[in-house]
Amino acid sequence: MGVEIAVTGLTKTFGSQTIWRDVTLTLPAGEISVMLGPSGTGKSVFLKTLVGLLKPDAGSIVINGRDLTRLREADLYEVRKLFGVLFQDGALFGSMTLYDNVAFPLREHTKKTEAEIRRIVTEKMELVGLSGAEGKLPGEISGGMRKRAGLARALVLDPEILLIDEPDSGLDPVRTSYINQLFVDLNAQIDATFLIVTHDINTARTVPDNIGLLYHKHLAMFGPREMLLSSEEPVVRQFLNAQTIGPIGMSEEKDADELAAESGQELPPLPPIALQLATSDGQPRRAERPAGAWCRDNGVTPPPGSFESRNAGIPGVRVEVG
């Protein structure tokens, strides 16, 4: 069972540079959340701060009634056992086989026997589709397999919180789709709290229960998937729908001349909201909401054609009904 993470007034700086300030959100227990944002907005820094690898300048991160920002190192070490982390490149030890990479946290943090470790490692590698690859080295496998091996390692201590940094980095669209399906299936099986940092619009529009957007040193918005996908907030609308009109330019923020040139231009209509990705076996996840429920409950009329396909309105994706 996942746990809730309550973040309040979080601020992080490096010297005179503010990364983001006053970030406040709640990651609901057992749900999948995605954090988006243009490059350089501190998404990876946010993940590292959540797990206590970086200390914020202000604010709190409360898990199970304990504020991580105020814990002693020994207590923080214990709370970190709630977390599993999948880094961008898998962060595997190049000289170790996949089996030994996945077994490493168990050997480092538990007193389990090798027989127990073998059972757990075999189970997790099967879960991510790597059965039979236990003896391979990271350099002998594809990027997608390295991601899955990193995911297996993140799962061996049965975490209640899973932090995933740029899972689509270096992967082609087909393998990104496979790993997205794996996240949805895993969430249904282990009921952990997921936070995925990504740039992939398809992932953001179809995988999560909640979406957040970091922009210009603050959290522009965080909430249920349908709330953001139907939002008229310019930066949210522009980013989630891959539009050129809006405050985001080639640099993090457009200059005044660009914005003035765009004033008066009619924004493209919002694309249809796609159906959320379902589990492979069709069984509902605990956190899953009926399609259109948020819109109905909040009196919001979704764009025409919403909830008719998995890929509706996703730039560059062929529509696939069902």
TrEMBL record:
**Keywords on this record?**
ATP-binding, Nucleotide-binding, Transport
Pfam families, A to Z: ABC_tran
Database matches in SUPFAM superfamilies? P-loop containing nucleoside triphosphate hydrolases (SSF52540)
- CDD domains to which the protein is assigned, alphabetical: ABC_Org_Solvent_Resistant
Taking every annotated instance into account, which residue ranges of this chain make up the domain ABC transporter? 5-241
**Residue span of region Disordered:** 254-322
**Record-linked InterPro entries:** AAA+_ATPase, ABC_transporter-like_ATP-bd, ABC_transporter-like_CS, P-loop_NTPase
Against PROSITE patterns, the record matches this protein to: ABC_TRANSPORTER_1, ABC_TRANSPORTER_2
- What is the protein's name according to its record? ABC transporter domain-containing protein
- Annotated organism of origin: Terrabacter tumescens
